[in-house]
Structures are given as structure tokens and as C-alpha cells.
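User: quick one, sequence for these C-alpha cells?
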């Protein structure tokens, strides 16, 4: 596991420790993290603060040319909302920790020419399986079920 997926997992664990959904994300440009975040829907009472959206928010305003050179790391397959942000900002490479517990809009991203790598990282799978087992209602709310 590389340092950037480790950083995304650290973000997911922060979210869990705060009472939220354990999903984390980092945005990397030229080998440096420019944005990091974790799902804060519960903590902030927000309908949109998924891990990827929080990472975009924390990256601040960046020119499109920067985003086109970025890789986004996320512990869980990005949903349609987060995939839309990836598309909007022209991210060309997404590294997904796992998609066994939730399959997001990976096919849509690939159809747009985005390189999507799925690692099936055991830590990511375990975090989500444990969370879903203990908090099924909160998980269903998070994914709109």
C-alpha cells in the first residue's frame, strides 16, 4: 500500500473516530497531497460531505490545469455525486481502496477516459464491513437507500 492510500485510510479512521462514516480521500498533485478529507455528513449535518467532496473542499480553489494532473485516492468506490465532481474538475486518475461493499460510478468514470484502479485493500474492506454491520441505518442514509 502506498503512502497516499495510507493517508486516505487515516482520514477514514478520523471520520469513524468522530462518529461518522469511515470513508477517506486525498487529492495528490506532483507527489504532494493538496487536499484531504473524510465523510463528515454526520458530524456536519451535511447531505454532500462525502470523503471526496471534503477533500475537494480542503484543496481549495485550484486551476483546472492542476486538477487535470491530479490523482484522487479514496477508500471506497466513488458514488455518482463524487464521480460528478471528479468529472467536473477533470481528474484523470482515481485509485479506489475497495468496491466490494459499495460499487460506485466506476464505469461512468472509465467511459469518460478516467483511469480507475481498484486495490481491494483489506483495511478498507474491513472498515466498511464493520461499520455497515454496526450502523446499517446510517450507511443506508449515506448511500441514499
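Assistant:
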Amino acid at each position: 500500500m502506498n503512502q497516499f492510500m495510507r493517508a486516505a485510510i487515516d482520514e477514514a479512521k478520523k471520520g469513524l473516530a468522530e462518529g461518522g462514516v469511515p470513508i477517506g480521500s486525498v487529492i495528490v498533485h506532483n507527489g504532494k497531497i493538496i487536499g484531504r478529507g473524510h465523510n463528515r455528513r454526520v458530524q456536519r449535518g451535511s447531505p454532500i460531505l462525502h470523503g471526496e467532496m471534503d477533500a475537494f473542499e480542503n484543496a481549495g480553489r485550484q486551476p483546472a490545469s492542476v486538477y487535470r494532473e491530479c490523482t484522487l485516492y479514496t477508500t471506497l468506490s466513488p458514488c455518482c455525486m463524487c464521480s460528478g465532481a471528479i468529472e467536473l474538475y477533470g481528474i484523470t486518475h482515481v485509485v479506489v481502496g475497495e468496491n466490494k461493499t459499495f460499487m460506485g460510478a466506476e464505469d461512468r468514470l472509465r467511459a469518460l477516459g478516467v483511469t480507475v484502479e481498484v486495490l481491494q485493500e483489506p483495511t478498507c474492506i474491513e472498515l466498511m464491513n464493520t461499520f455497515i454491520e454496526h450502523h446499517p441505518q446510517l450507511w443506508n442514509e449515506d448511500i441514499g437507500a
